[in-house]
Specification:
It contains nine helices and four strands; from the N terminus they run H-H-H-E-H-E-H-H-E-H-H-E-H. It has 204 residues and is an alpha+beta fold. Strands 1-2-4-3 form a four-stranded mixed β-sheet, with helices on both faces. The longest helix has 23 residues.
Length: 204
Amino acid sequence: MTDWTKIEIPQFMELVLEDEDSRVLVGRIVLDRLPYAFDTKRQYFTWRDELATGIQVDARDIIVVGSAATGRSLSSRKRFGVFGSGSDVDIAVVSSRHFDTAWQWFRRVNVNLLNLDDEGLRLFGRHRKQYIFDGMIAANYFLNYLPFGTQWIQELQRCEKYLPSVLRGRKMSLRIYKDNEALREAQMAALDSYRTYLAAKKGV
């Protein structure tokens, strides 16, 4: 497999089952690759560069993950499904500055004033009890509330024209990571879960 070439779903599934350390494999087939839903490296980099300028992060710290990156969801909650018409575009942003700003918001805000539904309250609680300590913020649900949220939403909308047509009009799900290690650990856990599922299904 050459650098930044397209990895089709059957090949991805074969690579998952290779006897390779998860830390190395997750870079090769999830993080440092041409996402499944993009046609060319230039297309992916142009979109990243435009969005990075708008939200004021380094372009290298914006990574498409999830089924739009791999062709298969790595989430058991989504039953490890194939990328399809109802799939979100999962975007990871690595930024300690934005992570810290969001964390301060979670610490100080009065949740009773947010008028959240049951799912929102559950996610809010998960952030305070777990997600923050894992170095991750599920920004998509709370983006409207975060200090930088309005700007980010506007930039996501502005940069949609740079996406391949198959991704336009889809829900954008953002997660902010404190550092690259937090992102890698999260993706390794997801990949290991999918590897276990796939091995059991294939009887490996």
